[in-house]
Amino acid sequence: MTVIRIDTHTHTVASSHAFSTISENAASAAEAGLEMIACTDHGPGLEDGASRIYFKNMRCVPRFISGVAILRGIEANIDDKGHLDCSPAMREGLDIVMAGFHAPVYSRDQGPGVNTEVLRRVMASGVVDVITHPANMRYPVKLRRLAQAAKQHNVALEINASVYTRRDSFDMAWHLAKMAYEVGAPLVMGSDAHICFDVGKFDLGYEILKAAQVDPEYLINSSPARLLEFLEKRGHGGLEEFKARFGSRS
Hints:
The chain is α/β, with parallel strands linked by helices. The chain is built from nine helices and eight strands.
């Protein structure tokens, strides 16, 4: 079985409900045998999210810490109209843009049809690379419609492996993963770690994949080269140092 050695969803103390620094996350990732992590703190729309200046200044973050590649990213917040708390100036220096529903920014469940349409508009904007925890019992969606939109716009749907907040959405998650696989939509898996000890912990994610009968090799973060290719196709540049280390699929 392919072992995932890239964690695309981690948080630091810049999101004040998280507990570790980038360096601590990287050290834990290195100890766990990971090759790459994405630093994806919450956008400023969340009460304790990182500031706008934080994201503009991510160019200061080294490309490698403790031997682990560091993608500069954000987990933006989606509001009720499908707008993001991530401006063009904030995105300029980012390698990966993720977005998801978070209360109270997305203030209430608007029903599966509206929730799905909001996510479809976000994907169609061309701004977001990954929809985080799309399988969320608090915000039900039309699973096949969402998978088809992800395929159409080449936006990855996340399999969220956090045992703290996603276990109750297990059935929804594996059904969405199965539908994404059937239609050929991109899938990615992240730990959603809010402390360094959870970086690279994917046990729940592997359970979801097993239930969906999806091989981990299908995931776009099944290898650094594959993830970098996805990000380049999504329009991200400045990845040369990573490509020099990990090569390319071509």
